[in-house]
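1st attempt posting a full record on here, be nice pls
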Amino acid sequence: MATSRAEKVTEFLTCVMCQELYTDPCTLRCDHTFCRKCVTANIQTRPDAVQSKTIPCAFCRQDTKVPDPSRPVEEWAGQIKPSIIIQGLIDTQADVVKTGSASCCSVCEKLGETTPGASWCSECQVSLCERCVKIHRASPSSHDHEIWDLSGEVKVKRRRKVICREHKDEVIKLVCKDCHKAVCQTCCAVYHRKCESVVTIQSMLSNLKYHLRRHAKQLSKKIHRKETIVKKTDEKISGIEKNKIAVENHIKCVEKKGKQLINEFKDITDKQTKELKADVKLEEIEIQMYRQHCVFIDQALVSDCEMDLYDAYQAWESGAVELGDVRDTDTVDTRRIDDIRFTPDTDNVQHILDDLQLGKIDVTYKDQGTCLTSPVLVDVIDGRMAGDVVEPSLRDVTVLVVDGIQTVVVTDRKNKCVKSFYTRNNQLCQSRLPLDDSPWGVTQRKENQVMVAVPESSQILTVEVTPDLLLLSTITTRKGYVSLAVLSPPSLATCTYDCVDILDMAGHVLRSVTTHNKEPLFTDPWYMCVNNKGSILVSDRGEQSVTCVRSEGDVVWRYAPTGDRELTPYGITTTPTGDILVAGTNKVTRLTETGDYVTDHQDIGCDPWGLYVDRHDTLYVCEQSQIHEII
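the predicted structure (as tokens):
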């Protein structure tokens, strides 16, 4: 098993051009990785690439623009961003050694002796004989070091010590949080003495490990989603081929006209199949990259090296793993074939052959920007907990990360409480804050605080999340507000049954938004949120609309469709890219940040109320008694 795993990792670390382990790996725009020297050699064999000032991929032939083509060709590859994930895997693999590599006692070897090593100190990175082990354990400076027995077939972990490039005799053990950089003690004293937050990597380890395990879990969920997309796309391709055969048989009733239609239909279906197969290829590339990073995280956790853990964490935080959509929208048709139908025209059979109309081919397209995949349910949290007197009625949800622990906070209207759910030591934990009246909206105020609207008692609560819940303060307002959102540090946007009010943090009304062009603007606004531009998005159940207003009261846009797209809006939230998600009956509607319709997700598996999207684009949906986690 260990050999198989090692071979799998080695496969990921092999350059397809030189068939050797990567040397200074760099990743092109198409997400294929090569040795930097191999990229340079490939450019020099391609005069067309030099002329067009691009770097061609030796695998898929996709071009990458050179950031600074004025530099010599030999330096073009040096401008490509290094692949820190793959380099980390290479470094980590080199640091996990078998017992056989520590054959002699390191202490005795310095004295000119060749005593066999019986143990390994992972802290000092030395092998020790039985005599030296006793001395090592008796020494005050090393009595608590972790000692590994070298007998048997176990593998020994070497905690790699990373030496500062500038100060060759010092180990990197510190992190400057202001500069987001790992440094040695001398670097800290020379270059970071004015920085306010410098801590040891050791003090960050528990938090780093938690985040890395969580990132690995998220990547596993994304891999599952990508595999589902690939499976559905393959099924669609198979359906296209079957439909193509059926239509060809239908058309062949008249040879001349049939050939013309068959050729036309074949060209269109071939184009659609080509587009779908390209999509499958892109999804498979992303799956491979996600799996590489999962291996990287796993190896970092196994090595237990401070710098390995920090590098893996930084790779995620820097966005190096978030591939997004690798499709280049500048180089493809903005319209993509969505469906093809053949409609027979049997009413014209009586006409002469030259005028015979066998039928027509209808092709529907969808914009490239709206080629959205179906949501995939990855987790469900049961909203029931001890103390509930009736079946939960969850109304709103938000998600915080408190001291490295992801915490889901929801309001339960029927049980008159606020609830939090989180995982600690691999165990699902819960907390419950009972209230006198039924809560509704909830929004994050600070890193570890939420605000809760209690409309029946006209109160707004501030609750501390530790991640257990603790009531900090209560303010009483003149109106009973259903939903709320932090507009800015000193102000709050709230909505009641016919208006939107801007409050200060003491609950005083600063201004109200009620009309537009002297007409009532809202009828029954139940949910609201604030987008990344500071505008207020209001979900109005009575008007069946979503309205975007500025805090000054100006209406930016309004979305109130009729017919098949008619809204029955509940919760509303925004994505990291600025899109808007609106909960409706058995669906979630996606709009652009300017209020244009994108799509309806109708297979989310529940009837949604409150919505929240975290920074990794994971959607949390609360419905009656459960919280669904969807990617």
